[in-house]
Amino acid sequence: MTEEKQNKNNDDLTDNDMRTGALDSPLTENGLMKKVRTSADMPVVLRWTVAIAAVLAVFLAMDSLRLFSERPLMEFVITVQNHYYYALLALLLPLCFLIYPPVKNATRYWYDIILSAATFAICAFFFINSETMLDYGWEFSAPVTAVWMSYLLWALTLEAVRRCGGATLFWLVLVFSMYPIFADKMPGPISGMASSAAETASYHVMSIESILGLPFRAFAQLVIGFLIFGVALQHTGGGRFFINLAFAGFGHVRGGSAKVSVVSSALMGSMSGSVITNVLSTGPLTIPAMRKSGFSREYAGGVEACASTGGVLLPPIMGSTAFVMATFLNVPYTSVALAAAIPALLYFFGLFMQIDAYAARQGLKGTPREELPKFSDTLREGWFYMASFVVLIFLLVFMQREAVAPFYATGMLLILNQLSAKNRWNINQTGSFLVACGKLLVELLSIMAGVGLIVGALSVTGLSGTLVNDLLYIAGDSIIMLLLMGAFTSFILGIGMTVTAAYIFLAIVLAPALIQGGLDPMSVHLFILYWGMLSFITPPVALGAFAAASIAGGSALKTGFKAMRLGSVIYFIPFFFVLEPALIMQGTAAEIVIATMVVAAGIVLIAGGLQAYMPFIGFLDKPGSAATAGRFMIVSGGILVSLPGLTSIGIPVGDTPLFIAGMTLGVLGILASRRVSAVTDAVVTSESKISDTN
Question: Where exactly are the structural domains of the chain?
Answer without folding.
Answer: 3-220, 604-694
